[in-house]
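Subject: Sanity check before I submit

Could someone independently write out the structure tokens for this chain? I want to compare against mine line by line before I put it in a report. The sequence has 623 residues.
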Amino acid sequence: MAFLDSSTAYDAFLESQKHMKLLFEPFDEFERIARNRPHPNVPKQYPKVTDGTTASIVKKTPRRIVQQVPTALVESDDEYWAIVATYIYQSIILPNANSQYDLIQKCWNVIEKSLTYGSQPAYTYFTRNGDYIGTDFILPYIRDVFLEKGKVSDQDSNFIFLRSWYQPRDIKAIIEKEKKLQSEDKEYKSEWDLEALARLQDMISAKEDEATTPAEKEKQTDNGGVEIIHAFQRGIEAEFYSFHRSSGEIVRTTKNPDPRGELPITYMYAETDGSNPLGRGFVELVGSLQNLLDSEMQMYQYNRALMLNPPLIKRGNFPKSQIKFVPNIVIDVGNDQNADVKPLSIDTISVNNFANNYGLMKSQLLNLLSSPDTSVSSEIGNPGFSKTPAGVDARMSTMNVDDNYIRKQYEAWFEKVSETLINLYFAEKQGIEALKVDKATAEKLSKLDPSLVNENMEVLVDYDQAKEALRVKVDASTSQVKDNTEELERSLQLLEINGKFGLAEKGLLNERELVDRVVVKLGLEDPEKIVPSEEEYQQTQMMQQQQMMAEQDAMAQMAQAAGQVAQPLPPEEAPRPQLDPEEAGFMEQLMAFGLDENQAMQASQMINEGASIDEVLAALGGE
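---
Independent answer below. Compare away.
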């Protein structure tokens, strides 16, 4: 079922644009606060200063929550495609997903923008950039993306519009490229209407206010161009349309390449409320309180300036030029006894109470946003900002809960973007490629079928056969660099408990896995050289079992030999020497095979003195 066609796409866009324009209205204020700019209506006499608390939180929160790109695996019902796709995703797509900015920078930006506006869209597409031919994503300006009217989110929308701006040289390059492809392949059919593009090449328009970015408004730069709208709709092989904004003339028609039929635009939400399709961000939550803090700061600075350089009261008939507040100067007021010069007395109550008022307001803002800021004390009237260990722990616990919420929102967005990246990659690639893989991937594929990988660790990937929709699973909270200290201490404690009670021997603990984790968390170089591989570990276990069986056989032989000779009882019990735990344990094993205590002690002493098993057997057998 198609939600749009060539005759309805333009009208649907105009409807969505009108609807979204109302939702974009508060964004000028959100952007101003997030960029730490003063309010435009600050009285002329007040300094243009700001407090900057909200701007600081919006900037710092992404870097606190995300310290690395999350770890993710591709899943498929076919294990072969899961292994190959995971390698392509981790080793090819992510390292090259650098349009606009580096990948980690885009991850920080998407959180920062969602905290500012409430949400931030990402557009995923197939590209050719130098030697890289694959998928990537960008973060368009939020006012350039228009959701379907009446829907509460991007997932709820059946179609989404993306506004883009082309310069004449961009359109010229598209025309030349398409003509070259047509000349090289007579059967090639361009998705672009080249004649329509040629007509639009010089139809440049200026950006409307709603389409202007904060930097463009502030610097008053002209970044207009040819405005083209891209219409995306859900559905497998559903048609996508690109048309000129002013005339509505369609310049491109293509099909949705995603085998899932999903849209290539994915939003990250700071918070959803089921009402606003753009969500709610930090700035909306505390914007009015931030304005109050800014006003408090401006009035304080204004009053400080008055106190440091107050107005003067002049009495008497003498020129004002005589009045100069300079050290060691003489002010001549003439012969009038009533003549006088003195500064105006400024009420200092508001200034004296500034710290308490300012701290109380700031603490309310920090409480709303669960910030780790510790610049406010409980003495300003907010007991929630106690500096005692218990008070600090309580605040940090609240902050960790809120941080985890934003992190989960981010990881859910990253998972959806990653799924689109890998599915579009396989959908757009064609033919057979000899893909060189790493050692780990080659080993996994060889276990499935040794013929899949050649001696150069290359696997032949037939993209025309990869039609199944792939899934991506992000490892929870891998976007955060964990503090290993506490977990390392617990792991070492568990190792100690295992040594005392033999949990691994009783099958109650996987000792190898525990040792692996300890080595990793210690941060040692080349941990693979310290911990044996699974194959080496199994060989060691087998050798130990064989050695144990040989010792048991030897002890059984000693017990059998001892039973053939009657040992006379000693006339009198001699004092027995004290044995160390290891020797005592060995004697208990010998006695378990039928030796009496004296025989076991004799055998143990002979072995400690270097006697061989044959010599012990001979002694016990009377040979």
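---
OP: Matches mine. For the report I'm noting this point. The chain has a mean pLDDT of 85.
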